[in-house]
Each structure stands twice: as structure tokens, then as C-alpha cells.
Amino acid sequence: MLNGREGNAGPPRRREVSDLYATVLEVVKHYHGAARITRVSYGAGMPVDRLRVLVDRLVALGLLKSEELDGRPVYEITARGQEFLDVYWKLRGYVDGLERAPPDGRTGRRG
Q1: Can you give the pTM of this predicted structure?
Q2: What tens digit of pLDDT does each residue of 33-86 get?
């Protein structure tokens, strides 16, 4: 659920910063170390100018690394970036489970 939609469950939710980080990291991961900013822009559904700020932040945090290829930067996910994704998806699963729980807090289990 990177784009904030889950089936036809209503309008998309606003993407939080952590969602944007995860989206960009997943797109970069897909390109195996050869992700150019335009490819990431299309994959993440973000304009390039806004994406550049986000990518710079991810590089500063050590979640992405940047190298020059043919005089232009390409991006690759780091081990720390992969760790972020692992934790993000685990937490996302918990949050989604809580959002699907009945409002009265019952889980449907008998005890």
C-alpha cells in the first residue's frame, strides 16, 4: 500500500514522510544500483524537484548512496536503507491490522 490505497476502500490517504521514504527506497532497490532521478521520479509518482530534496535527505541519513555514472548521479540502496524497509513493512503490517480491527476492540477470538 505505497500509494495510500487499498482496493476500493475510499479516498487515498495522504502519504506520510515514512511512506515517501519507503516508496523511494523500493523504487531505487528495483533498479539494482542504477536508479537515475527521472526513473525514481516516475516510479515514486513525485516531481523531480521535490524528489531531489527527499533523495538528498535519504543520502544524508545513509539510506541511499550516490555515485556518478556517465557524469550523472545514480542511486543505490544501502544496508541501512534495506533495514529501514524491513522495519517499515513490519510496522505497516501492524498498523494495517489495527486499522482493520473492529471498533469495539474485539478480535473475534474466544478465550
Answers
A1: 0.78
A2: 889 999 999 999 999 999 999 999 999 999 999 999 999 999 999 999 999 999
The rounded distance, in Å, linking the Cα atoms of 23 and 41 is: 10
Percentages (nearest 5) of helix, strand, coil residues in the chain: 50, 10, 35
Checking if the pLDDT of 1 tops 50, the result is no
CATH topology for 17-95 is Arc Repressor Mutant, subunit A (1.10.10)
Which amino acid makes up residue 37?
I
The single residue listed with the C-alpha cell 543520502 is 59
Contact yes or no for 28/66 (Cβ under 8 A): no
Using CB atoms within 10 Å of the CB of residue 85, give its burial: 0 to 12 exposed, 13 to 18 middle, 19+ buried: middle
For residues 76 and 25, the answer to whether their CB atoms sit within 8 Å is no
